[in-house]
Amino acid sequence: MNIALISHDALKKKMVNFAIAYEPLLLSHRLYATGTTGTMIMEATQLEVHRFLSGPLGGDQQIGALVAEQNIDLIIFFRDPLTSQPHEPDILALLRLADVHDIPVGTNLATAEILIRSLDQEGFIKRDHSQND
Ligand SMILES: O=C(CO)COP(=O)(O)O
Question: Which PROSITE patterns match (predicted)?
Fold first, then answer.
């Protein structure tokens, strides 16, 4: 599956710990991330992450484009609910597209854990990437 990993600064440590904890599971998936989040995950794990621009520079929008093309199956996005972001419109646009295309989004650790553990279970919607590989 194609999984997008994104985190705001205050939650990057949480994202790195999440990636470390679920590294064995994440290893068998294709990972995408915004710039800084992806770099920190790659530094802390053996995971290969396709990194886009940093969020404030357009990374959320780049991932949004993948969502629009139905190339993302799951988004783990640890949003900071306590700090306003200069690129808030980009963030909302990404979440809107996820709803448009019915893509599961985990915006906190508790939800992310439920989603990631359900990946291998029957019933998790697998999208057909064959046309885009
Ligand atoms: O700002 C972000 C998501 O909105 C994350 O971007 P970085 O991973 O580059 O910090």
Answer: METHYLGLYOXAL_SYNTH, MGS
Which member of 60, 73, 99, 120 is catalytic? 60
CA-based diameter of the chain, in Å? 40
Q: Is 60 a catalytic residue?
A: yes
Ligand 1, residues at Cβ distance < 6 Å: 6, 8, 34-37, 54-56, 59-60, 87, 91
| pTM of the predicted model as reported, rounded to 2 decimal places | 0.93
- Per residue in 88-129, pLDDT tens? 999 999 999 999 999 999 999 999 999 999 987 766 666 655
In 3D, which of 52, 72, 70, 71 has the Cα closest to residue 62?
Answer: 52
Cα(25) to centroid(ligand 1), Å: 23
Question: What is the three-class DSSP state of 12?
Answer: helix
Topology of the domain covering 2-117: Rossmann fold (3.40.50)
